[in-house]
Amino acid sequence: MPIRDRPRRSGRDRRSPEGSLPPTPARAPAPAQGPDRSASARRNAVAGVCLRAAVIAMLVAGEATSPPGFGLTGERLGVTLLTIAASVALALTIVSRLPVALPRRWDKAVVEAVFIGLVIVLSIVLDAVSHAGPAVGVLMFGVGAAAARHPLRRSLPLLLLALASLAAVFSGMLPVTELTGAAAGGTDRGLSLCVSVCVVFTVAYAIRERRAATAAQAGEAVLAERARIAREIHDILAHSLSAQIVHLEGARLLLRADRSQEALDRVERARELAKNGLEEARRAVAALRDDMPPLPAALAALAEDFRSSTGRECGLDVRGPERRLPPEIELAMIRTAQEAVTNVRRHAPGSPAAVRLSFRDGECELEVVNPPSAEPGTPGGGYGLVGMRERAELLGGTLEAGSTGDGFLVRLRVPA
According to the model, what pLDDT value does residue 317 have? Predict the structure, then answer.
């Protein structure tokens, strides 16, 4: 029998055995441009267009009112043609940035750099013909735009083009210098223009690099904040939800075995974990919104929760002048105290606890101590201590945890 081709199913129809869609490769999200960033880009574009229009108006008005002025013969004709050409080149630097002005295969930045180079050359020749100030202004604008808008691999050749053109004009190498006498006694002016061009280029390039460094720092700050948020979410979900799943799965198996009392205990533990996870999520959200309660108040609430849930004493001792700390430091100290107090309940049931918070010059110290317990506790894997040490290291602090002669001690020191 001929084998029939099976109809291909689209990716939307293919499903896993459980009925859910198969996992697709994760894609890096494209950087989203928010309304503020888009509005800022539009304002910058409008400002650039207005600035170029103002330069064109300044060039035309300056050349029209400065000798020799516009005309149809001799130097006047040269001034007229060069002014029109420079104005058109400046206008083309605006058009080259429009989305529909050029074919997609063309690099708009390269095209704009070419037009800027044309503006530089035309302004130098126009200055040699008219000896007027507007042409020098256009030259400085072109050099500054090249350095501020383009990387060094494109802006440096434009700077060399400007210096070479100035050298050619004021050294008498071009025919225009013979007609206008620009080379006669113009060596000092040519040198001053070369120095001015280099200064403008250096200042504009320094501004560009400063803006790039500021943008890079802002990007790193955003990535660091994203990493911090991801770490908080992971700490909450990985600890709380995974433990709830374990207890609920155990309760399901116990119910099948008609061991309802043990299953109820498992459900109660899962409920307690869910409650603690919700509290941790609220603390994390409060830290992200910078509206956390003061650290002593948060530790007092934690001590009160320990007393109400265990019936044992949990003292709080605050030393030194109280002050607010950065949110990430306060959250780390609260999480450390919470983990330490939870360990007392798990591994030393029936034992009281004591929390000491010390504000010192340049640092803050948190200690959680408890005496040994006569009752056996739940053995632990030590992952809570690992997480606390990681938090301390991320903040540039240290964490000490271990047995002492009087029981168990957890000490966190962070610069603050």
Answer: 93
